[in-house]
Amino acid sequence: MSYETKLRVRFCEVDLYQVVWHGHYISWFEVGRNELTSLFGLSPEDLSEMGLMAPVVDLRCTFKIPARFGDEVLIETTMQRCEVAKLIFQYRVIRDCEILAEGSTTHVLTDLKGTMFYQVPPDVHTKLEKMMAFLGV
């Protein structure tokens, strides 16, 4: 299962070729991820209040079919279970049942000074388990 976010392509998101500029897909991934994590008290603001950050250490995106101005797209966001203090989110951008792009982001958990954790702190672990149960992961 995945969390679904609907977006309509804005004029400012298309390039000279009248298709969505590739960098906007990455921001759409972020919209889907932040909506999902906010449901479980794991938004960037929530993490910061817990003294944590989750910086991106890897990002991948494969483009298949371009989106265009006015298209309604669906961002499907899910995640992969990890045994270490790492969060791997996976995304699909869909229009009318066609996959336009697929990708993933990998985040590590750190304190606010950037020191990495090897294990997920207990309070975060509880929230992650609820989110993964929601996603069926």
Q: Report the order of strands and helices.
A: EHHEEEEEEH
Helix/strand structural class: alpha+beta
CATH topology: Thiol Ester Dehydrase, Chain A
Could you say which overall geometry the principal axes of the C-alpha atoms support?
A: elongated
The number of helices is 3
Do you know the CATH architecture? Roll
Fourth CATH level, the homologous superfamily? Hotdog Thioesterase
Radius of gyration computed on alpha carbons: 16 Å
Query: Into which percentage range does the β-strand content fall?
Result: 35-45%
Instruction: State the helical fraction.
Output: 25-40%
For the largest beta sheet, what order do the strands appear in spatially? Answer: 1-4-5-6-3
**Strand runs, count:** 7
Mean pLDDT, all residues: 97
**Biggest sheet, open or closed, and with what strands and sense?**
5 strands, antiparallel
For this structure, what is the CATH class?
Alpha Beta
End-to-end Cα distance, whole Å, is 8 Å
List the uncertain runs: none
How many domains? The number is 1
Structure write-up:
This protein has 137 residues and is an alpha+beta fold. The protein has a single domain, classed as Thiol Ester Dehydrase, Chain A, CATH 3.10.129. The chain has helices spanning 23-38, 44-49, 122-135; strands at 3-8, 52-53, 56-63, 72-80, 86-95, 98-108, 110-111. The strands form two sheets. Strands 1-4-5-6-3 form a five-stranded antiparallel sheet, covered by helices on one side. A two-stranded antiparallel ribbon has the order 2-7. The model has no long low-confidence stretch (mean pLDDT 97).
